[in-house]
Amino acid sequence: MSGAIFRDAWGIPHLRADGPRELARLQGLVTARDRGWQIEVERHRAQGASASFLGAGELSWDVLVRRARIADTARRCFARLEERDPETADWIRAYVTGVNEGLHGHDAPEFARAGVLPGRWEPWTPLAVWLSTHLLFAGFPAKLWRDHAAARLGAEAVGLFATDGPGTSGSNGWLVAGERTVTGQGVIAGDPHRFIEDPGVYQQIRLSCPEFDVVGLAVPGVPGIAHFGHTGTVAWAITNAMADYQDLYRERLRRTGAGMEALGPDGVWRRAARHTETVEVAGEDPVEVEVVETERGPVVIGGPEGLDGGVPESGGPPLAVALRYPPRVTGDLGFGALLPLLRARSVADVDRAADLWAEPVNVVLAADTEGGTLHRVAGRVPVRSDANRVRLVPAWEPGHEWRGWHEPPRAGLDDGVAVMANQRGPAAALGVEFAPPHRARRIAALLARRGRWSAADMAAIHTDTHLASAAPLLDHLAALNAPDLTGPASALRARLLAWDRHMDAGSADAAAFAALRGAVVRRLAAEPALAAAATPPPYPDVFRPWLALVPRIGFALEHLLAAKDLFGIDRPAVVRAALEEVAAAPPAGAWGDTHRLAPWRALPPEDPREEPGLSGDHDCVLCTSAVPGITDLAVRGPAARYVWDLARREDSRWVVPHGASGRPGSPHHRDQQPLWLAGDLAPVVTDWAQLTKETDV
Asked: How much of the chain is in helix, strand and coil states, percent to nearest 5?
C-alpha cells in the first residue's frame, strides 16, 4: 500500500493514496497521530471503560454504556456489514489498521498523566465510537423528564416545559441555489452545534484517490466524511432532524432459578438475557454491573428490585427501564452510506447514499454543479404508538410494539433557499420537541435581504447575534408599572426596552438581560407551585442534566412566560422582583465577561488559561449556549463552520474552534481559534502545489 500525507498552512491533513482501502488506512494513521489521546478516550468511553483512568466521575457513563450494550451492538453491526457489504467492512478494517499503526508508541503527554497506554482497536471500534457519540443525541432522557413532570405537576406540565428546545445538540444549515448566487452555482453553509471539546469533535481533512477527492469534516475515530463534505461536483451538509427514534419501556422483572424473566404484553413471563460485567474505577474498588436485556431492549435503569438503590418508583411495584434503539434491533448503523458518499458526483448519488443511513436521524442538504438540490430526512424512525414517542410505556401492555419504519420525508426550496435549524421542518411528523423557530426564521430573513449571495458573504450569517426569544421577558418588563419601581429598577427597565436584542460579547445591555433572565429563572424555580418537580427521581447521575428543574425552566422560559397560566404563579411579580434584584447589583461588565467558552476536556490542561468571551446565545444564529439560572459559561456552540461553494471548491471556507492538531504545544493546536472567535474562515486549499508534503506512507 502506498500513499502520502500533505499539510496546508493550518496543519490540516490532505491525504493521497492509490485507492479507497489505502486511503482509509492513511486516514486512520493520521487521525491517530493528530488525535491519538482523543480517540483513545472515545474508545474507552464506547466500551464503558473510561473510569478506569479518568476516575469515578465517569462511572455513571460507563455503567450506562455497559447496560445499553454499545460495544456488543457495534460488534453485531460490523458482523452484518461483513456479511452484506464486505467492501465497506474491509475499508473499515483498513482504517483500524492505520489507527493501530499511528497509536503504536504514541507519545501524547496525556497518556503519561493519566497512567494509561494506547490500546488496540478492533474492526468494530469505529462503530462503537459512533454509537457512543450519538447515544444521547436523540435525547431519550427527555422522556424521563416528561414522566417526572407529569407525575409531579400534572399532564399539562409536559406542554408547558416543551421548549422545542435544547435538550440535544443542534445545528444551522442553509442552501442557496444557483438562481440566488452571484456565480449561478449553489452554496451550502452552516455550523453544527455540539458540546465544545478540546480537541474538537470535527476533524478537517481531505481524502484523495483515483476514485474520489473529497474535503470535509470527519469524526475522529470514524472513517470517511459522514456529515459535511464537498467532492468537487456535489456538496452536502446535515443538521439534527430532532426525530424521536428511541423508546423507553417500563419493565417488570423477576428473578428465577434459571436467571431472570420479564413480563411481556401478552401477560407471559419470558426469559431475559443476563450477565455481569466489571467496571474498573481509578483509585476505587471495581464495580459489578448487572447487564439485562428483555425482548424490548437493554435495561438501562434499575432491575428486578426497582430503581438504582432498590428504590421503587412512586411507591409502586419495582420497575426497570429498557431502551429500544434501531441499531440494536436491526444490526445496521448505516455505515454502508460512507463509501457511496465519498464517491458521490451528484445530488442523486447523495440521495441514494442517504437511503442507507440509520443513526442519528438527520436533515440533509445537498447541491451539485448541474444545478441539482436535495432537502430530505435520512435515518430510521420506527412506526409505533404516539405514547411511545412522549413518555415511558409499559412493556406488559399491548400496543407499544414497533411496526416498521417511517418513509423519510422530503422538502423543496423556498425562493431558491432551504434553511434547517432543528425547527419543525420536514421531520415534523417524526419528532416531539424541536428547536424554537427563531434561528431558522432569522437565517431566512437575512437571506431574503439580498437577491444574490456569494460564498464570502456567508460568515455574516454565521455570526448573527439577534435574540428573538427575548421578547416574552421584555414584554413582561414593558407591562410593569414604572412608578411602582425603584429608581435603579426603572432605569434598568428603560435600558432593556431600548436594547437592540443582540447578544454581543461587548454589550453591557446583553449582560444585564442575561442577569435578569437568570434571576427570573431562579425565582420561578423557587415557587412552591413547582417545588414538587425540584427533586428528581433516583435515576443514574448521567441522566440528571435532563431532570434538573432550574435548567428546564431556563430553556423553557419563553413558553413559561407566555403561557396563559403557570400553575397560578404571579409572573409579573416574579419579573418585578428579579428586576429589582439585578438593579440593586447589576453586572459589572459586558456579556463576554461572563459568557466564556468552557470546552470539555478529559483531563484538565497543564497550562490553564482564561477562556475567551463569546458573543451569541442559545436562540441566536450564533448559538453559544449558556444554562440560564445556572451559569453564563458556554459549553455548547459551533463545533465547526463551513461554506461549500459549488462554483469553485477552492472558494469554500471552514474553521474549527481550536485547530487541526490535538497535541498541546503544537502550532496547530489553537491556531484557528482567533478566526473562530472573529467569525472568519480559513480557505479550503485544493491545489496540491500549495501544500507541504509531510511524508510518504
From this structure: 40, 20, 40
**Mind spelling out the 3-state secondary structure of 224-262?**
CCCCEEECCCEEEEEEECCECCCEEEEECEEEECCEEEE
**pLDDT at residue 167 is higher than 50:** no
Residue 30 falls in which region: left (phi positive, over 0), alpha (psi -120 to 50) or beta: alpha
Phi, psi of 190 (to 5 degrees): 165, -170
Percent of the chain with pLDDT over 90: 92
Residues with active-site annotation: 171
331: cell is: 444490526
Residue 647 and residue 177 in contact, taking contact as beta carbons nearer than 8 Å: no
* Whether residue 169 has pLDDT greater than 60: no
pTM for the model stands at 0.96
Closest by alpha carbon to 190, among 503, 437, 408, 440?
440
Q: Are 426 and 376 in contact (CB under 8 A)?
A: yes
Which set of grid coordinates corresponds to residue 434? 424541536
**Cβ atoms within 10 Å, residue 422:** 30
* 8 A C-beta contact, residue 632 and residue 615: no
pLDDT at 313: 54
Q: pLDDT: is 668 or 168 the higher one?
A: 668
If you average pLDDT over residues 116-134, what whole number do you get?
97
Residue type, 489: A
Q: Is the dihedral of CA 283, 288, 293, 299 positive or negative?
A: negative
Supply the pLDDT for residue 165.
41
Are 575 and 425 spatial neighbours (Cβ–Cβ below 8 Å)? Answer: no
